[in-house]
Amino acid sequence: MKVSSRYPYLKVVFWFSVCPFLISGLCALLLMVISIFNIFDVDYNLFGRAVSSFPLAFFIFSLGVFYFPPAAILSVIYSVLKVKKNAKGVLFVSLSGALGAHLWNFLFFSMTERNIFPAPLLPSISLFMGFLSSLIIGVVALPKNGSMNGVSHE
User: Which of these, 4, 33, 76, 136, is most buried using a 10 Å CB contact count?
Assistant: First the structure.
């Protein structure tokens, strides 16, 4: 029987706080790779493709900064609640991440005079990306189900 009574607060807070940077970084990298190795384009100037796709890739990566505040708030909530890696815990962080991103969009864009994104598209993308990134980080960073109170349920 494995005995452990400490919850990894810093690990959970760190990984869920950087969650938006990981997903936006992966999307930016995917965009760069697709634009560089576009097989449908007959022009094989790889450097030109990389340079021309960099501004959009940088914008996509910078969305990690935009979604950092709700991710950091949610990560503290997960630590306070001591969420574990089980079906309920991973589903909870996944749905919370999706709804947190969606609520952040609503709060931010309701305060601006005009919306710079297509209105129907951004909420669905943020919901999906929030769910997917929180799901991945939940599986990786949450502690196992039986690691509290000195009793292991494995």
Answer: 136
Residues 6+ apart with CB under 8 A from 136: 22
- Structural domain that includes position 106: 9-141
State how far the Cα of 75 lies from the Cα of 93, in Å rounded to an integer.
9
pTM value?
0.75
State the pLDDT at residue 106.
80
Question: Average pLDDT per run of 10 along the chain, which is 154 residues long?
Answer: 72 93 86 72 63 76 88 95 93 95 82 59 79 93 65 39
In a domain, residue 58? The reply is yes
Q: Domains in the chain: how many in total? A: 1
DSSP conformation letters of 6-22:
---HHHHHHHHHSHHHH
